[in-house]
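Key idea: predict the complex, not the pieces.
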Amino acid sequence: MARQIRIALRNCGVIDPERIEDYIARDGYMALAKVLTELSPEAVIEIIKKSGLRGRGGGGFPAGMKWEITRKVQADQKYVVCNADEGDPGAFMDRSILEGDPHAVLEAMTINGYCTGASKGLIYIRAEYPLAVERLKTAMSQSRETGLLGNDILGTGFNFDIDIRYGAGAFVCGEETALIHSMEGLRGEPTVKPPFPSVEGYLKKPTNVNNVETFANVPVIINKGWEWFSSIGTERSKGTKVFALAGKINNVGLVEVPMGTTLREVIYEIGGGIQGGKEFKAAQTGGPSGGCLTKKHLDTPIDYDNLIAAGSMMGSGGLIVMDEDDCMVAIAKFYLGFTVEESCGKCSPCRIGNKRLFELLEKITQGNGTMEDIDKLRNLSTVIKDTSLCGLGQSSPNPVLSTIENFMEEYHEHVKDKKCRSKVCKSLMQYLVVPEKCIGCTLCARNCPVNAISGERKQAHLIDQEKCIKCGACMEKCKFNAIIIN
Amino acid sequence: MAKIKLSEKKIQELKDVCKTFHNDKGELINILHKAQSLFGYLPAELQEVIAKELNVSVAHVYGVVTFYSFFTMQPKGKHPVSICLGTACYVRGSEKVLEEFKRQLNIQVGQTTADGKFSLSCLRCVGACGLAPVVLVGEKVYGRVAPDGVSDIIAEYNI
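Result:
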């Protein structure tokens, strides 16, 4: 794991997350003490700005700039919000930080409160993460007892407290305006920006929203200095990024690597390569908002800008590896299925457009697609991106555009040859018995759930294509490899 | 949808929940979480009580309930089965596992078996991608589930 540098994950698995003493022993709350006793809010914001820290939730907005905007707005009450609504399927870095190092987030939020002039913090967390909620609650009560949260923190006269708000299963609530509406007890629908939450957010007050991983970086930057932090990474993306490696890879789990590490290093050196020695086909980053990186991107340094140039995005850091058995048209359809379900329905490009995209993809995977449909997919995708209200719709066609861009030949095969090379699209395949290999043991016929296989004992069997539901049970059971997919 | 009648005791319990949140409409989602953990689901009658307590329209409460996938207006089975269809589980074959549950329980997603024992739902990522594909029965997590392991899981609860 030589290539990894652990900043956001520095304490995960190292300390007992339920003991504040463990956190303090690893320089915990040292940054807060330094900030409150030695530095002005402006000086801290300057440090964060100079460090080059960008939002780790997906968009990559410079964190220091966000803090500064919130600071400059005049208001009687301001809020700090930690976005822990990690809804991106295949991403679990925020959960790990909250469960493994909850104090880091609390400390950073308090620092942010000091900088922006907020006295109240809110953590918006998914209801699906009960352990993370428990750990946060334990950490919060420990901090209060120790005088690190609440009134008169460390005897400096600074007041700041944190509360938890629960999500209820809506992907769109990761978008900051939707998140704020959800915290207000409303439907989590986004609104047009500006006004940005930094100016007008929770209860119409200036609200600084950052994600869990962004916050987790803050105490280290204060302790070790911006010079140290900005020496890691690439020119425009500083520090490290946590990726959740999943899919067809040998070592599944979280990795934290400097920005600019190549995909090859992540997959082959850290991830231990593809499962079963199969061939790498694509890596999907950015979840339903991102796109696919392919073999030609293996040596591209991963950072915010390069990923966007490659038609994907950083997203929250899910990195799902796919091999030759994954059909890219079906993957695009899978993501669109997700978007259709999670679109909040407020604006029509996203609500209706994505549904149409899904239908077109379905038509293609069923073998009824035409070349014209591929053009339609492209055009409609562009319209949805240009006209949707929020980040969800503006990025939802990315999986379609990126698979068309990188795997056009697979779309062509589905449309022209009615073939799915990865043998995923059921409508395009047939299970056949190879008569020379079949010894007529009847095992397949007995296991077929729909009785589609006929044949006498000791004679070659036959699959009735009309009845076959393509479940693959026969192929799994056959001991003689006599069943093949055409 | 069939009407159900809430007992006086239940209604009082619900009002107490609202009160612990100061009947604040900004706390609606927290109240609904609490109510669902008490009653198992959120029938229309229950939403009417909450709306009245918080002094908002029933439509407002209904709008919130139906927006979030975590809230349900259908009673769940004694052992709610949830299959993760997140990307990591999907590429590792969770669809086949789902098909097998559907076949063996003989219900569709969102339905409950006639004996009320099992209900079937899909969810998007529990953050346990290392164990993909993942199935949850109640709060118990089953990792690396293969289609031929489905009958064993069902049998565990079918006593």
